[in-house]
Amino acid sequence: MAGAVTSLRSWRIFFCGQASILIRKEKTQEEFFHTFNVLHQANKQIIISSDKPPRSIPTLTERLRSRFEWGMAIDIQIPDFETRSAIIETKASQAGIELPRETVEYMASNIKTNIRELEGALNQLLAFCEMRGVTPDIQTATGLIGDVRQARPHHLTAKQIIDRTAKHFQIEPKDILSPKRDKHIVVPRQIAMYLLRSELHLSFPKIAIELGRKDHTTAIHSIDKIEKAIKLDYLIREQVADIREKLYA
User: Are strands 13-16 and 45-48 parallel, antiparallel or unpaired?
Assistant: First the structure.
């Protein structure tokens, strides 16, 4: 242990990625707690990334949660079109390839979910072109990205969205369909309505029917509220993104 502490004190920066996954086990949290203390007492820089804020990681112990909240939290949002384009160009350049601008723009316009999928599509494109001895033009990119899209299920249903939303919030689907107004049910219900609109493109009356409502103005209000919350509330944005990702996993 003494050797490990000495080694830690020699580090200038400590970076931990995907903290919500790494510290699921109690023993891991115990070790991380002591590591954090050693680094903090030595006035080292600690950087921790996670797909959720500390208060939204249910398995996180209170003492770690409080320490994580000591620092400055920065919300890293989904990259916009310009950023996605820059990432594609940079990654391609690192591989020694200069992509046509129209190929870059096509990929940036059609892959918006996350950077991993964007990089995966780019790697697939570059590997395909190298094996076939062809250029990474817009026609090749169109064919490959079409294949990536087809890998996602096209049979997504309203029930799947409602069930997945309920599972994410650890409630029952019947709670979302019920008239209950408890906050821990209202927010999941609003998110389910938002996803029914964004993923299935259902009309407001159809969304109301799917959730057992007679008046579709509730659906309009709920979807509008979540659309605004996504822009301002980190937690809501992450919850929606997490549910959406699992729907297509």
Answer: parallel
